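Notes from hallway chat w/ T.B., transcribed later so I don't forget. T.B. wanted the structure written out for a chain they're using in a teaching module, and asked if we could keep both sequence and structure tokens in one place. Agreed to drop them here.
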Amino acid sequence: GSDDGQVGLRANGQVVLFDGFLRVYEEGRDDVVDEDDKRLPQINNGDAMDKRSVTPEQHFTQPPPRYTEATLVKRMEELGIGRPSTYASIVTTIQDREYVRKDGNRLIPEDKGRLVTAFLENYFRRYVGYDFTADLEDQLDKVSAGDAAYKEVLRRFWRDFSAAIAETSELRITEVLEKINEVLEPHLFPPTEDGSDPRLCPNCEIGRLSMRTARSGGAFIGCSNYPECRYTRPFGPPDPEAEASAIPPDGKLLGEDQGDEIRVFKGRFGPYVQRGPVTEENKKPPRQSIPKDWPAEEV
């Protein structure tokens, strides 16, 4: 080791004390040099060691490759999830629902998929477990073969599943959001380069950022200091360029007129401007579509 004791070095090797069957049988010795490097010298317990040289080596680990449609189906087959008749619909559904997107041949997780996964793994963990799904597939196979009664299979499933739904329904929305924020924090609020708090609101510098739900559905990132601070950004990791132009689920505030907020939204049939919020008394506030040649982000 080093003189200051901060660095310790270790050498590994081996010595054959009894060759046994190796005396008459020995595998090929192509790597003679490497083997010599690993052979221990003649030493006794307590002998001091002199180091000849120290060569630092750097190794990088690689994450598992992204799934393709083919490798995803192969993995489902290995886990016993799905059947040949359902593989295609599963792969299509996760893309249609925007849980994943295709980048070339690779399937990339989308923020919506991360959100749904976080919710299910925390509140319906049993029902998204590989073993549970594979076991249910086996039960359905027995029903198909006439070896099990479908009503009994459904009764057992629904008894526990309905109880899980009832238990989750009793949770406060804020409690669920806090849990999702905690689980997705590394993704939604990654560490900043300057070491500052990634959840500190960049607008008011008082509130903390967290996932919120919009009245119109969907999720976005908002400030806890609302309504004093109306900072929002799209759901997902921070993206300064996208934040500058994106329209959040609660709409982009354009201004006020006679006390009513004027906001621009992205609707099912395109962007539109709305005067005032949707309330019980005013379920259809005045709206006006934006011409197609007008970029909604620039309104």
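Follow-up for T.B.: The first strand starts at residue 100 and ends at 103. Might be a good example for the class.
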